[in-house]
Design brief:
Arc Repressor Mutant, subunit A; 2 domains; 8 helices; Rna Polymerase Sigma Factor, Chain: A; mainly alpha; about 170 residues; about 80% helix
């Protein structure tokens, strides 16, 4: 019997039992499908370790149990990370001063090409060589575009009084 034949026999025989096991322990059909897929993928990769006869079912239960545990740990980690990200984003929103509205307006007035090169440099923290790779140009061209975009942004900012300047004049 080839490894493929052995796997197909194990799959055909024990799929219903593993499907029921997973379905009783998951909250959605998608999660059940994930457990099944991962369990039988492991069985395929380790078909030489799968015991003969009814012991194969117990082995598969053990694999499915560990897959479920990994799935639950992953869900917990994702929930913690999502909560932390929500907190960080909420904090970032409260930190953004109203006085920067003039910068946003000037930035929005720039051409898309200028906005992209500035965003790559300032928001993403990329250097000239990295910007060049993202934009598909030479490093010299990227640095030149960045320099020109900064100049155009500075010119727009000079023409727009900031909110703090307006408040001081009043």
């Amino acid at each position: 019997m080839t490894q493929r034949d052995r796997f197909e026999a194990v799959y055909d025989t024990y799929y219903p039992a593993i499907q029921q096991y997973a379905a009783r322990r998951t909250s959605s059909p998608e999660d059940t499908a994930d457990v099944l897929a991962e369990t039988f993928l492991i069985a395929w990769r380790r078909i030489g370790d799968v015991p003969q006869g009814d012991k194969a079912l117990l082995w598969l239960y053990g694999v499915a149990r560990r897959v479920l545990a990994n799935q639950q740990r992953g869900a917990s980690r994702r929930a913690v990370l999502a909560e932390r990200l929500r907190d960080e984003l909420a904090a970032a929103r409260t930190v953004t001063p109203v006085e920067l509205d003039h910068v946003r307006r000037a930035f929005d007035e720039l051409a898309e090409r200028d906005r992209e090169v500035l965003a790559l440099a300032c928001w993403e923290g990329l250097r000239g060589e990295q910007i060049a790779q993202v934009m598909g140009c030479t490093a010299i061209a990227a640095r030149t575009r960045l320099h020109r975009a900064r100049r155009r942004l500075a010119a727009l900012l000079e023409r727009q009084p900031s909110r703090t300047m307006v408040m001081r004049k009043a």
